[in-house]
Amino acid sequence: MRPSISSLAAAACAVAALALFTGCTAEARKARQLEKAEKYFKAGEYEKARIEYLNVLRADEKNTVAMERMATMWLEQGTPVRALPFLLKLRTVSPENRANRMKLATALVAIGRVHEARREATSLLEKWSDFGDPLYLLSDTIRNGPDLEATDQAIKAFPDKVNALYLAAAANLSLLQGDAATARRHLQRAMSADAKNPEVHVAYAKLYLREGDAAKAGDSYKAAAENSPVRSQARMRYAEFLTRSKGAKEGEQYLNEVLRQAPDYLPARRLLATIAIGEKRLDDADRQLKEIFARDKANVEGHLLQAQVFMAREDVKKAVEELTNLQKQFPNLGIVSLNLARALLADRNVNQAVEVLEKGVSADPEHAEANLLLSELQLRRGNAEAAAKHLALLLQQYPALPAAQGMFITALRAMGKLDDAARIIGEQIKVAPKNPQLHLVLGSILRQQKKPAEAQQSFENALAIRPDFLPAIGELVDLDLAEKRFAAAMQRANDLKTKMPASPVGHFLAGRIHASQKQWKEAETALLKATEIDSTFSGAYDLLLQVYVASNQLPQAVRQLETAITQNPKNDRALTLLAMIQVQQKDYEKARDAYDKALAVRPDNATVLNNLAYLLSEHLKQFDRALELATKARALEGTSPAIADTLGWIHFRRKEYPAALPLLQEAAEKLPETAEIRYHFGAALLATGDRSSALREFRAAVSSPQDFPDKPDARAKMAELEKDPAATAAPALTPKP
Predict the structure, then answer these.
(1) Alpha-carbon distance 656 to 648, whole Å?
(2) Which residues fall within 8 angstroms of residue 206, CB to CB, at 6 or more apart?
(3) Is 544:531 a contact under the CB 8 Å cutoff?
(4) Residue 10 — pLDDT band, cuts 50, 70, 90?
(5) Contacting residues for 472 by C-beta, under 8 A, at least 6 apart
(6) Per-residue pLDDT at 416
(7) pLDDT value of residue 47
(8) DSSP characters for 6-68?
(9) What is the DSSP secondary-structure string of 184-205?
(10) The pLDDT of residue 736
(11) In this predicted model, what pLDDT tens digit does every residue of 76-116 receive, in sequence order?
(12) Cβ(353)–Cβ(380) under 8 Å?
């Protein structure tokens, strides 16, 4: 039966009415949710507010009020990465809202995307020329010459010359230009314009810190905090200052007061956790992290701190797992890639660390620390060209970054591009002519270029800036000895002894000069004096032993030392030298006893710990005690390549190859001319499957004129690998500067 027209009309009306009712109901529900969310937001109950605002956004994904509130809450919670999606969408939906766009620029700075932040700030100034906030951001994010020039132009173009943020920005720029007096005048005017502006007080704190007045800087940070909301970066900055200047207790008291007023303020809890980790109070850190994750399970900074706790407990596997999961959630954050790579390195997984960093810097190219670590690892692996590529890009953004400059020069030298390296150092010297280290590096490059006269001038320039700069004095003595200018070299050593009588270096250099002329008795006298001043000076002991061997005086030296020890059984210098001679004479048991007696006198002597560890490992096969002693030596002198070699080789002898490899690599990079160390590194590479790099190391060890006990084994392994087509030539080892 056909329905009547009247029935259809009635049905249509019913449907329309239902739709209207449903629409009204949906709008009413959304309005109620928004009203409820606003109530929670204004009361500071952010957890409840977030739930309601998310309900609003499920019904209306373009609701600007809900997006603004979500972004604000995440920013106030110190989690800009969670605020960013809302702020980016708000820029699309409401591009005329300058407050939201300013929050976007601030969030971008917080996660390290400074270039994007500056671009956003510049765009804001182009649209609103009198907007002070983006101008201040530009002044606070200057990284290079173009940034400085652009900021200078923006400040000059700003129309409101009495605006407090304009004056604070001008002060920041003046400070960067080294003009503290002008910065102070700007800030005095800024205080007159707006004495309660937190950024003005922060700028004052920077000025006071530049002048070395920590007390006034603290007062300024405190004023900035007092003129800011409880949930603010200014409060956290003051807490950090208190912790640094007055200790953890002061910082914790302030943070606990912040949390009393705002229990859900996560940055305060994160800072408390950071302080606890630094003081090894890991249970306290756990309690703070538990509170953080109860409020925000995906809190990036919280998970980074959790990984630090695992590392502090020496649970590297858990740290790697924690950071791997975090990277899956936030694959584009350089800070996550950096921390994961560090954990992987602690887990002896260099290849995976490099892979993580390569992906990380590709996604977040502005992250300086991730770029630096990747470049360092590439240099260690002998891939100077790849390191130079990354460093060149990094220096475009951060041209004044000293670590990047130094690594870039190292990479260029390894690639044989000495002219480029010298040019870059020359440019740096123009910017910082009073830096003696720059003149030293230029001199070493000029020596490498076979330009001794120019190298000498560079070393002299370094000494003109800092007359007690020992590395430059040593380089000049080397040049004198190479040219057989013995009198000039000795004059330098004598001058140093006069200027620095408490230093062993002048006597050591005199010993070297005498030894180079085969003046054995004079060399012995000078070197013994060096060890008298510093009984831990390993270089003096090593050269003394060479003097005794070269002059056939080992038996006489033993008798003299035994007499000295009889007269004073606690003469650790005599005990150490006696042990070294006994090792040379292959009297290993007596050498061990002498070293043990020296350690009883000075348990923290890294030279003795290292030498005894090597003796126990190589000649007495006491690997457990050897490992214990070498580990202690490494803790005392973490930068010593000799100790790194000893500890690495002990791990190798114990078949702990992943632990051995990075230590032996470090030693080979720092002492590339030492044949035995190159052999050790080659053996570790071979044991871990890198046959081509192992072949490179064995070739270096075999081709060296130096002799060492395992040279026949190095030759045999080299011959075996040369028959293997897979063991192709590896890139040259990149030495450390």
Answers:
(1) 9
(2) 172, 175, 217
(3) yes
(4) low
(5) 436, 439, 440, 443, 459, 460, 462, 463, 466
(6) 84
(7) 81
(8) HHHHHHHHHHHHHHHHHHHHHHHHHHHHHHHHHHHHHTT-HHHHHHHHHHHHHH-TT-HHHHH
(9) HHHHHHHHHH-TT-HHHHHHHH
(10) 54
(11) 888 898 899 999 999 999 999 999 999 999 999 988 888 89
(12) no
pLDDT at 193 over 50: yes
Nearest to 316 by CA among 345, 273, 338, 336: 345
Closest by Cα among 91, 99, 92 to 132: 99
Question: Above 80 in pLDDT, residue 53?
Answer: yes
Check if the beta carbon of residue 62 is closer than 8 Å to that of residue 93: yes
Q: What's the one-letter identity of residue 160? A: D
pLDDT at 557 (0 to 100): 84
Amino acid at 536: T
Helices (H), strands (E): how many in the chain?
41, 0
pLDDT value at 499 more than 50: yes
- E strands present in 327-389: none
Task: Render 654-722 in DSSP notation, one character per residue.
Answer: TT-HHHHHHHHHHHHHH-TT-HHHHHHHHHHHHHTT-HHHHHHHHHHHHHSS---TTHHHHHHHHHHHH
CA distances from 140 to 132, 191, 209, 260 (A): 12, 18, 16, 31
Cβ within 8 Å of residue 708, ≥6 positions away: 675, 676, 679, 701
How do residues 704-734 score in pLDDT, each as one tens digit? 999 999 999 999 999 999 887 666 555 555 5
- C-alpha–C-alpha distance, residues 580 and 722, integer Å: 37
Residue 572 contacts residue 561 (beta carbons within 8 Å): no
Give phi and psi for 605, each to the nearest 5: -80, 105
Token reading at 220: 């300024």
Contact 736, 413 (CB under 8 A): no
Of the candidates 205, 217, 153, the residue with the CA atom closest to the CA atom of residue 138: 153
Nearest-Å Rg of the Cα atoms of the chain is 33
pLDDT in the model for residue 1: 42
Query: In this structure, what token pair is assigned to residue 683?
Result: 């053996």
pLDDT tens for residues 235-251? 999 999 999 999 999 99
Which domains are seen in the chain, by residue range?
Answer: 642-737 (1.25.40.10)
